Amino acid sequence: MTLSALNADIIVDQLNAGEITATDCVQHFLERIETHNSDLNAFISVSDKALEQAEAIDNRRKAGESLGCLAGLPIAIKDGICVAGQPTTAGSKMLEKFSAPYDATIVERLKSAGAIVIGKTNMDEFAMGSSTENSYFGSTNNPWATDRVPGGSSGGSAACVAGRLAPVAIGSDTGGSIRQPASFCGITGLKPTYGRVSRYGLIAFASSLDQIGPMTRTAKESALLMSVIAGFDPRDSTSSKEQVSDSLASLEIPLKGIRIGVCRDHLNEGLHLEVKTKINDAISVFKQLGANIEEIELPHTKSAVAAYYIIAPCEASSNLARYDGVRYTFRAQANDLEEMYRNTRGQGFGDEVKQRIMLGTYALSSGYYEAYYLKASKVRRMIKQDYDEAFQKVDLILGPTTPTPAFKLGQHTQDPLAMYLADIFTVSANLAGIPAISVPVEPSSTGLPIGLQLQGRAFEENILLRAAHQFQNETPWHTTSPSEPWRTQS
Amino acid sequence: MPDTPEQPIVNQVARLARIHLDEQQLKSSGEKLEQILSFVSQLEQVELPEDVIPFFGAIESVNAIRDDQLQTSVPREKILDNAPESDGEFYLVPPVFKQTDS
Questions:
Q1: What is the rounded CA–CA span in Å between residue A228 and residue A156?
Q2: Count of CA atoms in the C-beta half-sphere (13 A) of A479
Q3: SS3 assignment, position A168
Q4: Are the beta carbons of A201 and A105 closer than 8 angstroms?
Q5: C-alpha to C-alpha distance for B65 and B86, rounded to whole angstroms
Q6: Is B7-45 assigned to CATH 1.10.287?
Q7: Cis peptide before A157, with omega less than 30 degrees from 0?
Q8: Which of A51, A287, A359, A466 has the fewest CB atoms within 10 Å, i.e. is most exposed?
Q9: What is the pLDDT of residues B13-68, one digit of tens each?
């Protein structure tokens, strides 16, 4: 079996057993990037230090040094997360020349565990989008059908794992940006509880919603990465001191008696027929695993997209004020300071980013705050209460990750609302701050991946990962890869 | 919900956001704003209990305060490496005040 077919936990075992070297492993994935990235455009930049770092790991291993639990494992990082000395663009012209002055906390932790960053992945500009078409560096293509989007905003991370250009990747999720691309690309993606993983070094989009998480083929690999990246960080004042439980140790605890809630409203209106069928099939698998399926209601989640598209742009309009031509590499020509601000932002931001800043600025401006931001924040409270009540009855909530499989490149670029509705099932978890995971179910009849979403109580990632892992023990969908050469679908 | 924004308001929002948009972009931005605001106006229909407290943050955690001790931070030169223009100590920007002859 070639290296690229192996899961990360197996690669780590083989590295530890001396069956392969970190250098061979990194070389293998760098070669795959070299061969395939022109088709997928999953990476914005590739590390020129990865081989050197792999050799250093191999030498330390030879010398008998004690190494971290990911020693020698290549990993791809979304380009909105700082890796010291590497370009970190957030998919924007504004940061095209930006070199991160420090490592994000999660990168520091991954490196301490011995992981090797092989490259930075493509994304919608400042994570604003659901298709990776808003990247200044061009769209990413879905390896299952290259005329389709990989989802977004972490589309590069999803496509590179699905296309086996990296064994595992890291993404970030503000309204579904890990789970929706995971669903479109047939991989596993976990958005942890808000505060579970440090955001220090993540380029901020909407600070009350953003969360970093793993994007992998299997739930077991996600558990492995979470064992490294989760936990309190004094440099992120919103990171939680809540104890991190060992997800890896609890993966095999039987699901018998676990209560899984299904919201029937989410399985009816507007749902692609095949998505509905495959999700119902998945429910049967969970029943066989001993889960009790119960109906629940989440009445306010139907307003979640509307609330999200007020709250996220409001926060973004404030967070992105810092890009004014003074500190972050790009500056447009101007005669005075005010003109410099306006020209820099007019030329440095792409259309969608400008649109969302405009929306947020409008909604927060004098006279509109109560009607928009305050109202949306009250609706957000109702959504959170819906979940609090549901989790009195059930341990997990199951549904589709997205209403359809991956759509075609260009299909929604002129219709922002159609694009926003791709997030209809994912935004609620961000608004409520709870963890959620997407896992692949049986693909559509045309071979497009479909994702199942499980949502859980705050800080109960271990239950999500356990349920996802046992679903994957019973099903083959996470083991399939797109055939090479990549095909188009139409 | 307030009425959809007229073009002078769109121009004012672009000024507030410090984003230069040309005439065509202002028009297109106004149209998209109208479309999105019309969509989010569904929030008006959501019935809320009178005493509902807005939820601004996903986790209502306690304030994070650390000891007031000197810590090392990223060296200044590393930060200034990303500056469009600096003198090695400060960021440099175009004139803040317009120059006059007097």
A1: 22
A2: 7
A3: strand
A4: yes
A5: 33
A6: no
A7: no
A8: A287
A9: 999 999 999 999 999 999 999 999 999 999 999 999 999 999 998 665 667 777 89
CB of B13 within 8 Å of a chain A CB? The answer is: yes
Sheet with A211-216: list strands edge to edge.
A43-46, A116-121, A74-78, A168-173, A211-216, A188-191, A436-441, A450-456, A396-400, A259-263, A292-296
* Domain boundaries of chain B, sorted by first residue: 7-45
Which residues in chain A are contacts of B48 at CB distance < 8 A?
Answer: 378-379, 382
According to the model, what pLDDT value does residue A73 have? 98
Using an 8 Å CB-CB cutoff, list chain A residues near B35. Answer: 416-417
Q: Which of A289, A298, A300 is nearest to A261 (CA)?
A: A298
Nearest to B55 among A317, A338, A384 (CB): A384
Say how far apart CA A77 and CA A87 lie, in whole Å: 11
Cβ contact A261:A390 at 8 Å: yes
The residue with tokens 């497009």 is A448
- Given CA atoms A77, A78, A83, A87 in this order, what sign does their dihedral have? positive
Banded pLDDT at A123 (limits 50, 70, 90): very high
d(CA B102, CA B98): 12
Is the pLDDT score of A364 beyond 90? Answer: yes
Q: From the CB of residue A138, how many other CB atoms can be counted at a distance below 10 Å?
A: 12
Report the distance separating Cα A92 and Cα A137, nearest Å: 8
For A372-403, how does the pLDDT look when each residue is reduced to its tens digit (9 = 90+)?
A: 999 999 999 999 999 999 999 999 999 999 99
What integer pLDDT is reported at residue B3 of this predicted model?
63
The percent of chain B in helix, strand and coil, each rounded to the nearest 5, is 35, 0, 60
Q: Whose CA is closest to A446, among A401, A413, A488?
A: A488
Domain ranges of chain A: 3-253+401-412+432-479
For A203-252, write each residue's pLDDT tens digit: 999 999 999 999 999 999 999 999 999 999 999 989 999 999 899 999 99
Ramachandran bin of A487, using left for φ above 0, alpha for ψ from -120 to 50, beta for the remaining angles: beta
Sign of the alpha-carbon torsion through A278, A282, A283, A284: positive
Measure the CA angle with vertex A369, ends A368 and A372; round to 5°.
80
CB contact under 8 A, B20 and A347: yes
| From A208, A237, A368, residue closest to B58, measured CB to CB | A208
Phi, psi of A10 (to 5 degrees): -70, -40
Q: Are A252 and A219 in contact (CB under 8 A)?
A: no
Look up A153 and say whether it is catalytic: yes
CATH of domain A3-253+401-412+432-479: 3.90.1300.10
pLDDT tier at B1 (50, 70, 90 boundaries)? low
With beta carbons under 8 A apart, name residues in chain B contacting A325: 84, 93
Question: What pLDDT is stored for residue A63 in this prediction?
Answer: 96
Looking only at the bridges linking them, the beta strands covering A292-296 and A259-263 are parallel
As a whole number of angstroms, the distance between CA A209 and CA B87 comes to 37
